[in-house]
Amino acid sequence: MTSDRARLREAITRFPSKSVVVVGDLIVDEYLYGKPARISREAPVLILRFTEREARLGGAANASHNVHTLGARVVPIGVVGSDAAGEEMFALLRAAGIPTDGVAREPGRPTPIKTRIMAGGYRSTRQQVVRVDREPPAGPEPATEDALCARLAALAHGADAIIVSDYGYGAVTPRLYHEVQALARQTGAIVTVDSRYELPRFRGATAATPNEPEVESLTGMAVDDELTLEKASRQLLDRLETRYLLVTRGSRGLALMEREGGATLIPVFGSDEIADVTGAGDTVISAFTVALAGSARPVEAAQLANIAGGIVVMKRGTATVDRRELLEALAHGRPRRPGHDA
Length: 342
What we know:
Layout: H1 2-13, E1 19-24, E2 26-39, E3 46-59, H2 60-69, E4 73-81, H3 84-96, E5 103-106, E6 113-119, E7 127-134, H4 142-155, E8 161-166, H5 174-187, E9 190-195, E10 207-208, H6 212-219, H7 226-240, E11 244-248, E12 254-258, E13 263-266, H8 280-293, H9 298-312, H10 323-332
Helix pairs in contact: 1-9, 1-10, 2-8, 4-5, 6-7, 8-9, 9-10
């Protein structure tokens, strides 16, 4: 176990020398907080007294933020609208120290926003009451697609890896993914894919990171135990023509399936006291990709992704994990609770 931890620590030390491009849907995660006041007379609903608003990087922007906090160099490539949310996306990226060269603007296109209404007092746990999504109606205009392809060609040539973060808002067009594949073949970059709704169209990637329900849906097979999980995952590996499948299993951890190897089941890291799973998939694919780019073995990369996921679900809202937290978790064998010393 000591030698395993030493190898994982060594993999983490290589993170800062890696460069990753994240191609996908840039989303503003908006949180509106309110204290419960009374029941409305107009309808049987709770009235919240507004207290504060917070905006965070979401979607592909959150994946980019995680790559950045893990210590690797990152360039996000995506599109926002020429609206207030688009301006906020640029401001959030710059505040985090993430370059915006790869972000295109499209007039008339709304920037995706996920608004979560959170209820609770200052000292109580604030619960999500409802979520309102503002979405673009379709994919980007041809001129925007041209701009995204040009930015990819200009900014991704030195990249060790490319993450495709597809939330279904159309930024990753078939043409753009074709360019990602062509560039990867040219440079040898790793390509990893997280797609909510259209994973089968991203064939030929190095790795994909579906969750268990997605594996069931895509294969038509019920995943009732470890044997059926492996059988369904093998079928999906073949269908996607990918080398690795990293299946997220919620409270049961992760499962790594290798085309040229076996299946590795990795139990959840830490406890099952989950605070919030928002954006956890972004953290998992970011840690897995950066570790693979740093020449970690697939199992080691999956173990680091599992640790990162175990840390981030203990944080509230869209969140990130940094290298220091990974190293501390390795040293102590458990994630450190936010707000507590190690």
